[in-house]
Each structure stands twice: as C-alpha cells, then as structure tokens.
Amino acid sequence: MVQDPRMSFSDLSHRVIGCAIEVHRTLGPGLLESTYEHCLAQELKLQGIAFLLQHPLPVEYKGLRLDCGYRVDILVDNQIILELKSVEHLLRIHEAQLLTYMKLAGIRQGFLIDFNVKRLKDGLKSFVL
User: Fold this and answer.
1) E strand or H helix at 12
2) How many Cα neighbours within 13 Å face the side chain of 110?
3) What confidence category does residue 10 fall into, taking pLDDT thresholds of 50, 70 and 90?
4) Backbone angles phi, psi at 46, to 5 degrees
5) Mean pLDDT (whole number) for 2-23
6) Do 86 and 31 form a contact (C-beta atoms < 8 A)?
7) What is the DSSP string of 63-105?
C-alpha cells in the first residue's frame, strides 16, 4: 500500500489510533496479542494505511548488521512503530523495548498498545524520540 505523501505525521497518528480503537471496540479485551495484531492489520488495510507486519529489525553492532531475530509488530508507513500487548499490566520493560526498537529503526514515533484493558485509552502510550 502506498501512503499519500501529503498526509501529515499527526493525521497518520490520529488515523492509526482510530484503527486501534475500532479493533478494541469490536473485539474487547481478553484475546491473544496475535489476534489483535491480525485484526489491526486488517483495519489498517481497510483504511488505506500503509504498513508492514512483523517487520525484521536488525541490530547494527560495530559496523556489522546482525539479524538477532527482532521484529516490529507493525511498522506504519515507515513512520510509526506499533508494539502490541495483551497483558495484565504494562511494565517499564515494554516501554524500553519500544524505545529501543524506535532507536534501532530510526523511527521517531511509536505507540505501545495494550488491548487487555476495559478502555483502550488506558492501554495506549505514545512515545516520540
């Protein structure tokens, strides 16, 4: 999918959050992370938003590019990383994971989204580098 280059970063962020809200509104909490990932991918597709699912994330170490098996849950239009969770409580390690992925990928914005909440706004955290 090709993203309209005239769409601003904040417009894209707003649309992505809207897609996550729609998935949560439809499914509710309590399902596996993989279910939310596939449904969010479908919603992004329906909304015409470009994304990559389970995008490989190599580690640059002393001039070498190493495939250490890291994958970004969803990379939206090469601008936003979505790290999805379905857990009892978000932990600091989840935030650290997203921030590290953002640094490694050179992506300035990311969302940590926990679908295992009553209201999605309680499980949504935004990060900007």
Assistant:
1) helix 9-27
2) 26
3) confident
4) -60, -30
5) 79
6) yes
7) TEEE--S-EEEEEETTTEEEEEE--SS--HHHHHHHHHHHHHH
Produce one character per residue of 16-36: b if its CB has 16 or more CB atoms within 10 Å, e if not. Answer: bbebbbbbbeeeeeeeebeeb
User: Can you give the residue ranges of every domain in the chain?
Assistant: 9-128
Q: What is the pLDDT of residues 79-97, one digit of tens each?
A: 999 999 999 999 999 999 9
Is 9-128 CATH 3.40.960? Answer: yes
Whole-model pTM: value is: 0.90
Q: What are the C-alpha distances in Å from 107 to residues 101, 110, 129?
A: 8, 8, 8
Compute the C-alpha angle 30/14/117, nearest 5°: 15
